[in-house]
Amino acid sequence: MALHDEHFFTLLAVVPVPSTVEEYPWRACPRTRALPVQCDAEGLCVLESIVQWVVNLMEALGAPGVGIAILLETIFPPIPSELVLPLAGFTSTQGDLNAVAAFIWATAGSLVGAWLLYWLGAAVGARRLREIADKIPLTEATDVDKAILWFSRYGSFSVFTGRLIPGVRSLISIPAGVERMPLVRFTAWTLAGSAIWNALLIWLGVTLGANWHRVTDVMDSYSTVIYVIIAVILALALFFLLRRSYVRRHETPEQRAAREEKARETYKVYRELEKKRGKP
């Protein structure tokens, strides 16, 4: 499998060289919209260079190249999956790449990258990672702070939701490692969140076709929807917690005794199961 030359030039043809960011706003960094276009000595935009690099990687390796790109994106945030995966989706419509294979490899790359950041967080700690983040282009210590704050607010479930939030999804693995979150649980949440994110972006690339680079406009609305959904879930959780607290404060002695008796019976059943499994 290889990208044909005409397909390569078709990809570059939909990436015209603009005179200003305002003319083609997609060329601003998708992680920080306010950044101006950054060009090298030859006048090539940084994002255009990334696009060409990804095309070359997929040309050489096919679907595994997508996995490698996403692995690098996970541990090196300036490489945006918001460009890599839609490009893979568009390429699949040209008959040069299998979208399902790209999804599988991308999800595997996401998981391996997340494991690396998890172990890095466990080994190095938050303070040192903030110093490292400040030295990486297009990454700041505040990005690490944002991920740590997200994890401290929402616990292990934040690994799942964080994988769906641009700007948080890569770095959310760090506080999970710092807090020594159980690896099996971390892996499960990471796989679930990464699968949804990767499938969405590849599907958008397939749907948008030659306009795959417009995916950043779609992701703005998507991020807003995700924040609203999370806010609703948290509001419902808070409501049920307050309701349970209210009910317990106003229960009669008989109701309290019945509830405590049920809890003791449940604990006995749990202990019996633990003994059968050979646990003390």
From TrEMBL:
Q: Would you say which domain of life the source belongs to?
A: Bacteria
- Stretches that traverse the bilayer: 99-120, 183-204, 224-242
Keywords carried by this UniProt record: Cell membrane, Membrane, Transmembrane, Transmembrane helix
Cell compartment(s), UniProt: Cell membrane
Q: Which Pfam family is one of those matched by this entry?
A: VTT_dom
Q: How does it sit in the membrane?
A: Multi-pass membrane protein
Q: Which InterPro entries match?
A: DedA_domain, VTT_dom
Which ranges carry the VTT domain?
79-205
* Gene Ontology CC: plasma membrane
- Family named by the database record: Belongs to the DedA family.
Q: What is this protein called?
A: VTT domain-containing protein
Q: Which organism is it from?
A: Corynebacterium urogenitale
